[in-house]
Amino acid sequence: MRRPITRALTGVLGLIAAAAGPLGTAGTAHADSVVVGGQPAGITESPWVVALSSRDRFGGTRAGQFCGGVVVAPTKVLTAAHCLGREVLGGTPGQLSDFSVIAGRTSLRGHGGREVRVADTWVNPDYDPSTNSGDLAVLTLARALPESYAIEPARPGDAALAEGTAANVYGWGDTTGNGTYAMSLRSARVRVLPDTACERAYPGGDGAAYRGDTMLCAGDPRGGHDACQGDSGGPLVARGRLIGLVSWGSGCGQAENPGVYTRVSALLPRHF
Ligand code: ARG
């Protein structure tokens, strides 16, 4: 059965399963597709992107990066609920001795910016791991980041959510669909797609089902630009507002299988 649950870290751990990802099979991305869009991004221009890190669990080679996150207030970071699941962390977030976010750093090899401990985690009680609906968690940081790092989340009805809007997705995830993880932050240009595009790709049955009320569909109608494993929890930004968090998809960068994002505008007002 196809499942929407992440395998974000399997590649980091060097397991073969990494390439398979949650829904796709190894090598399903086209050879020429540059999954996270093929362009380096700088943290100065996108200071709201952070890496979730635990070197104890994921090793130090890539600074312990295992998911993305996004700063929405000096001590608040949004990420995907599935990033904090037992399947990813091997336990509860509280059991990680060194759970931190890395802010202000473009390269995972670098030393710029800062690492701030996660003091508290909140997982959306409506998150359903079996469907990935409501894939949102909020991290409270032990120390405040600069106010200027925060990005404003879109509200329901925001023009940034309209079909066809150009958006950028950011992350340190897989750039090929084969388990090649980025060292430096990248971004890919995609478009907000109609719910019907994801309903067609993910009709449910014995596979994953797309739900437009809690999820947002975005991708490249011609394929080649998409988020991928390891990007989960990271931001999808349009018109300067946060519209989505990387959540799931089948393979990476395939025209017929768009990326599925957490619809931040639908989930935030209820919880803040
Ligand atoms: N679940 C993946 C992660 O944990 C994200 C997959 C996104 N896939 C996509 N084709 N947009 O990193």
What does this structure look like?
Helix content is 10%, strand content 28%. It has 272 residues and is mainly beta. A six-stranded antiparallel barrel has the order 9-10-11-14-13-12. β3 and β4 (76-79) form a beta hairpin. It starts with 16 loop residues before the first helix and ends with a helix. Bound molecules: arginine.
Essential attributes:
disordered N terminus; single chain; six-stranded antiparallel barrel; 272 residues; six-stranded antiparallel β-barrel; 5 helices; mainly beta; binds arginine
- Provide the low-confidence segments as ranges: 1-34
Large-scale geometry? globular
Small molecules held by this entry: arginine
- As laid out across the biggest beta sheet, the strand order is 9-10-11-14-13-12
- Main sheet: strands, sense, barrel: 6 strands, antiparallel, barrel
State the helix count.
5
- The total of beta strands comes to 14
Describe this structure in a few short sentences.
With 272 residues, the protein is mainly beta.
Question: Could you outline the blueprint of secondary structure elements for this entry?
Answer:
Elements: H1 17-20, E1 39-40, E2 49-53, H2 55-58, E3 65-73, E4 76-79, H3 86-89, E5 100-103, E6 114-123, E7 137-141, E8 152-153, E9 166-171, E10 186-192, H4 195-201, E11 215-219, E12 235-238, E13 241-248, E14 259-263, H5 264-271
Parallel strand pairs: 8-13
Antiparallel strand pairs: 1-10, 2-3, 2-5, 3-4, 4-7, 5-6, 6-7, 9-10, 9-12, 10-11, 11-14, 12-13, 13-14
This protein binds arginine.
The site of arginine has 16 residues, from β13.
